[in-house]
Known about the structure:
Elements: H1 6-15, E1 20-21, H2 24-27, E2 44-47, H3 51-64, E3 68-71, E4 88-91, E5 98-102, E6 107-110, H4 116-125, E7 128-129, H5 142-148, H6 155-158, E8 165-171, E9 177-181, H7 193-197, E10 206-213, E11 215-216, E12 220-228, H8 231-243, E13 250-255, H9 256-266, E14 276-284, H10 286-302, E15 307-310, H11 314-325, H12 327-332, E16 337-340, E17 343-344, H13 350-363, E18 367-373, E19 378-385, H14 390-409, H15 428-447
Parallel strand pairs: 2-4, 3-4
Antiparallel strand pairs: 1-2, 5-6, 6-10, 7-11, 8-9, 8-10, 12-14, 12-15, 13-14, 13-18, 16-19, 17-19, 18-19
Amino acid sequence: MSLAAAIPAALTRIAGAANVLTKQEDLIPYSFDGTAALRQMPGCVVLVTMREEVAAVLKVANETKTAVVTRGSGTGLSGGSLPTPDCIVLCLARMNRILELDRANLTLLAEPGATTQAIADAASAAGLFYPPDPGSMKISTIGGNVAENSGGLRGLKYGITRNYVMGLEVVLPDGEVLWTGNKCVKDVAGYSLKDLFIGSEGTLGVITKILLKLIPKPSARKTMVATFGQIVQAAQTVSDIIAAQIIPCTLEFLDRTTIRCVEDYAKVGLPLDCDALLLMETDGHPASVAEEADKMLQIAQKNGALEVRAAKDDAEATRLATARRSAFSALARVAPTTILEDATVPRSELAGMIRFVEEVAQKYRLRIGTFGHMGDGNLHPTFLTDERNQEEMHRVEAAFKEIFEEAIRLGGTITGEHGVGLAKKGFLPKFAGDAQMRVMRELRRVLDPSGILNPGKMF
């Protein structure tokens, strides 16, 4: 059943004719997100610029029982912003203002469409630091980061998006506006409602303002690269660094396939005669940085590193970090379809998990490049495939199933930072268990009794 004509008409009265898209060719860019091999046309798209418009759209949707899928830049990798048939796509990308930077309280207030990079740059210009840095930070929006509870390269030391959210303005499915949180460092009055909405993937409400915590900018940093002939040596180096009570800012891993693709793409001088590469960065007080860098270099050498070198200046350090951030883009050039996944295991299980991914690739005759945040156990097995080859895609699905089941068996999780969305909802019950699933479903039912927000996602 197609979208009733009365709904676009109502949305036009709210946002204006220029901001309501109904033509097929205009809807195509909103029919997919960053998740490979998934596409679905929406009924219409409404581009909003203020909270009042969001509330009015949700009132219309709630009254007509029309599904609403909220969207920012569409960079998600779990199908979280993929439209459902004949839904309203509520696009918040134009709500992109940074409303306040409060140096006295170390906070920043932003609208959901502001990019992560814009927030980081605004903090930096004030001499402050916003640490979360997803690989897509140049284009991903802070609203999407909060909805998916995004991570990033600096997650090992600084944590993830949840650790920096102090308050949220949320429009509930019936159009009512709720504010939760404040600028207080301590606040234990009542339930922590903001934490319900962080990572809720657009299923409980629409976030329209985000109050973020900022921290002082580190005064020094040092970036190093270590290469290894065997992946197990890199994994052991990570374990030994943590055991030495060193918590680096960044501790990233690339396997042979990823190294070659990144170097071909970014041309930053990565060595090609190795099976594994670690990108290590420490930051903080200059004396501590120098001491930690020296210890990490020694640990890498003790574990048989082929080469260990430090970036000679900030420009080289930035090039190395940029090369790591480009891993997905580099791998995407190799095959028609690139499926980037994330599975997280306890750090002690990293070496075994990496070997398991390699075995799965051989078993199913697939090409997989693996990279990720080795310091926090978050791996990104990336399948280089072709969605037009149905037989191969069946092998890809079987390989995914084994990888996620192994992650759960090892005490890990099915997603460390990408979210559940559409792509992983089939794995959630086994990971979460009956009681957690029941509580999550009931919470969703209480806040969205008509089930209009992002239906079909997570559950």
